[in-house]
Write a structure and sequence with these properties.
Length: 211
C-alpha cells in the first residue's frame, strides 16, 4: 500500500483519453479476464492510439488504481442511494440491503473481480486514502442499520452492525464472484436461496436475545 498511486490528468484532452481507456477496460471486463486483455484491445475499443496510451501509462496494470477510483465513486453513489431509501423496520432494511448489494455486485462483477484479486496480489494498487474511504463507506452502511437500534437485541449494537456488514459483503462477494469455487461451494444454495438465508442470518444475529 502506498500514499498515492494516482496522478490526475490536468488537461481536458488527457482527462477525456483516460475516461475512454477506463470505459474500454470496464466494458472488456464484462466478458474477459483482466489477464487476457491486451493493451492493443483496450486502445482499439477506446479509439486511442497505443502510443498515446504509453505516453500516460507504463502498462495496463497502472490503470488499476484509476479503475478502483471510478468503482469507488459508483460504490459511494450506491451507498447514498440506500441511505435515501430507508425502510420501515430493521428486517425490511436488511432484506433490501441484501438484495441491492447482490444486484450491485452483479452489475460490476468483472471490474470488482479484477480489483478484488489484484489488490491482494499488488497492495500498492490501493492508497491509504482509498482504504480509508472504503472503510467510511462500510461505516455508513453499519450506521444505516444502527438507525434501528431499538430493534437490535445485541448487547453491543455498533459492533454487531459492523459485523453484519462484514458478513453481508463477504458472503455475497464469494457467492456472486466465485460461486463455483471454495468457500462458496460449502453451501449448495442457489443465489436466490443464499440471499434469503443470508437475510435470515443477519436478522437473527441482530435481533435474537443475547445471552
Amino acid at each position: 500500500m502506498q500514499e498515492d498511486s494516482i496522478i490526475e490528468a490536468k488537461q481536458a484532452r488527457s482527462q477525456q483519453t483516460q475516461k475512454k481507456l477506463l470505459a474500454a477496460l470496464s466494458d472488456s471486463l464484462t466478458t474477459q479476464f483482466f489477464e487476457h486483455i491486451s493493451i492493443a484491445h483496450i486502445t482499439e475499443q477506446a479509439g486511442v492510439s497505443v502510443g498515446t496510451f504509453y505516453r500516460r501509462f507504463k502498462n495496463k496494470e497502472t490503470l488499476l488504481p484509476y479503475l478502483y477510483q471510478d468503482f469507488s465513486e459508483q460504490f459511494k453513489d450506491w451507498v447514498s442511494a440506500l441511505e435515501g431509501n430507508k425502510q420501515g423496520s430493521l428486517s425490511d432494511q436488511i432484506a433490501l440491503l441484501v438484495t441491492e448489494c447482490n444486484a450491485f455486485l452483479h452489475a460490476h462483477a468483472g471490474v470488482l473481480r479484477t480489483l478484488h484479486l489484484n489488490s491482494r496480489l499488488y497492495p500498492e494498487i490501493l492508497t491509504k486514502s482509498q482504504l480509508f474511504e472504503r472503510s467510511h463507506d462500510y461505516q455508513q452502511l453499519a450506521a444505516l442499520l444502527m438507525t434501528y437500534s431499538t430493534e437490535i437485541s445485541h448487547s453491543k449494537p455498533k459492533i454487531a452492525c459492523e459485523m453484519a456488514i462484514f458478513m453481508l459483503i463477504s458472503n455475497l462477494i464469494e457467492k456472486v464472484l466465485y460461486s463455483e469455487l471454495t468457500p462458496a461451494i460449502a453451501s449448495p444454495l442457489s443465489e436466490e436461496e443464499n440471499q434469503q438465508e443470508l437475510t435470515l442470518v443477519l436478522q437473527n444475529y441482530l435481533q435474537s436475545p443475547q445471552a
